[in-house]
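Incident review: delayed structure delivery

Summary: a single-chain prediction request sat in the queue longer than the usual turnaround. Root cause was a stuck worker, restarted by the on-call engineer. No data loss occurred. The affected request and its eventual output are reproduced below so the record is complete for anyone auditing the incident later.

Affected input:
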Amino acid sequence: MKILLVEDDVFIGESIKDYFELQGNRVDYYSSPIKALEEIYPNNYDIFLIDINMPGMNGYEFYKELKNYASDVPVIFITAYSDIDHVEQAFDLGAADYIKKPFDLKELELRVKRLVFKKTNEVKITENYRFDLNKLKLFYKDEEVELTQNEKYFLEILVKNIGQVVDSETLKDYVWDGKDICSNTIRTHVKKLRNKLKENFIKNVRGSGYKIEKQQ
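Output delivered after worker restart:
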């Protein structure tokens, strides 16, 4: 699971980041919403965790910008506000949930999992291959295919966008955390992954990226 966290209180932000990363999730944490907008690809995330009261741009304004690119990604607003007007404004913007400070990190975890995993399950790739989005596991018939962590992330982003081309910049951000890798690194990665498959369902769209075709 890949999480975007924007929280200007560094103690709270680092606590949330550490908690979720200890469970194997990936968390991009920003204390500045303006900097986040400059650096992120909004549609690469499974969920947004956004504080409301932040300097320069509040959480509502920040989320409005994100919605232009990732309207289907759920958001949980984090805030110290307790009045009903702020709750109403959050849900009017399309918030999936709302949590008030102080809160238990376990409670936040439960809310996140409820939203991220409620619609995800095993996706059929071909007649013989299926991918479990919850556990990031690939199966050939009933046998699990052994994958590296990056191979799991690579298949995850392709499966989430099945039928669509995922471009190289998106792959770099999602699989390699935005590291400046060359195109040859991606090609080598795909070649090694294909060598593990009995069917070649990863399609190279020349000059654009990679995709998995939808099953008819």
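Verification: The longest strand covers residues 2-6.
Action items: add queue-age alerting; document worker restart procedure.
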